[in-house]
Amino acid sequence: MRRRSAIVKFEGELWHACVFQRAADSKETLNRWQEDELAYLQESFIVEPMPEELRPLMNQALEEWKIREDKVFSKLGMDRREFMNRFEEARESLWRGGFRWPLFALGVGDRVYGVVLNMDWVNLFGWILPRADKANEKQHRERGRLVTALFYSELMLRYVGNSEHRDLVRIEARWVLANEGGDNGQV
Q: Where are the domains of the chain?
């Protein structure tokens, strides 16, 4: 029997303990949330502080992530800084309608495929954990940017030729959140 990922387990536990979703208070709000992923994330979710009893599971999840991170950079043949610089250039190219982003996606996409399991992991590392564990927000935010960039890169490969795909809009909203400073718990 295969062992359940500590990251998957932690994501579920942290979401259950710390993340609360508001209902839209009007049809206008609901329509805005359906059209604007960033507004939806910022306005509809509240993240409370992480209970201390989740810290051991968090540490297991972070250890599991570190192993994945080391493996992907070994496959890429570059360090974190170089990857992030190249990713940010590609991301800017994508939204400006440039030609560099498909080259980046084709160059790294297959090597980053599967490192980040899904958008839930992006949510966990990109904006929930930095808000739930304020004592370590800086480290979590740095890791969250990387997790988001890796999954973003995978999506770029998936949607080469379709730069307006909804998943690219969704990941861009999460990229913005992963790069924001701290706040009072509201996303």
A: 6-178
